[in-house]
Design goal:
This is Peptide deformylase. Belongs to the polypeptide deformylase family. Removes the formyl group from the N-terminal Met of newly synthesized proteins. Requires at least a dipeptide for an efficient rate of reaction. N-terminal L-methionine is a prerequisite for activity but the enzyme has broad specificity at other positions. By secondary structure, the protein is of the alpha+beta class. It has a single domain, classed as Peptide Deformylase (Alpha-Beta Complex). The strands form two sheets. The protein has a five-stranded antiparallel beta sheet. The protein has a three-stranded mixed beta sheet with strand order 5-4-8, with helices on one face. The protein starts with about 25 loop residues before the first helix and ends with a strand. The structure holds the ligand O=C(O)C[C@@H](Cc1ccccc1)[C@H](O)SCc1ccccc1 and nickel (II) ion. Nickel (II) ion binds next to helix 3. The ligand O=C(O)C[C@@H](Cc1ccccc1)[C@H](O)SCc1ccccc1 binds next to strand 1 and helix 3.
């Protein structure tokens, strides 16, 4: 099972590189890794397992955070309306997005960042994402608000972008233009 020891931290080159597309169909090792990433997220949200293995709770994870520069992400969370999202995806891509932006009112964190970085992270309020799932099926997701924010955080990891790159340097809590807060 994956633990925090497998997660690289700020300064590791893979967090600042553009990850490579996975040649499809994915090989057994890539499928197993995606399964492990999803299992890590579920474990990190299980009180007992989380405490036993000293995991940080996470709702998303990208392969570059494991030092693996492949375009693979996993997400496991429930949005504010109780809708569940649990996906392991190869080669996710935003195919369209809203003009309107959104930001998480409490700010963002990152499993690869062992410090608090304050400020609003402006992201698209709505995105349409295409990918290939762990079974090799095409996936098209229309996402908004919290779900859109989580997926964009993970997609950024595939392009070497950290959440704090988006924060206004002069005034971290400046309300981003044309953006709505997501509680
Ligand atoms: O480091 C990662 O990619 C995982 C992040 C994803 C994330 C952070 C902020 C906003 C959206 C997604 C971790 O999940 S950070 C810890 C966390 C845990 C529960 C809820 C929100 C953030
Ligand atoms: Ni992160």
């Amino acid at each position: 099972m994956l633990t925090m020891d497998n997660i690289v931290r700020e300064g590791h080159p893979s967090l600042r590189e553009v990850a490579n597309e996975v040649a499809l169909p994915a090989n057994p090792e890539e499928k197993a890794l995606l399964q492990d990433m999803l299992e890590f997220l579920k474990n990190s949200q299980d009180e007992k397992i989380c405490a036993t293995y000293n995991l940080r709770p996470g709702v998303g994870l990208a392969a570059p955070q494991l030092g693996i520069n492949k375009r693979m992400i996993a997400v496991h969370f429930e949005d504010g309306n109780g809708k569940q999202y649990s996906y392991g995806l190869f080669n996710p891509k935003i195919v369209s997005h809203s003009v309107e932006k959104a930001y998480l009112a409490v700010g963002e964190g990152c499993l690869s960042v062992d410090r608090s970085v304050e400020g609003y992270v402006p992201r698209y309020a709505r995105i349409t994402l295409k990918a290939t799932d762990i079974n090799g099926d095409d996936v098209k997701l229309r996402l908004k608000d919290y779900a859109a924010i989580v997926f964009q955080h993970e997609l950024d990891h595939l392009n070497g972008i950290m959440f704090y790159d988006h924060i206004n340097k002069e005034n971290p809590y400046a309300i981003p233009e044309n953006a709505k807060p997501v509680e």
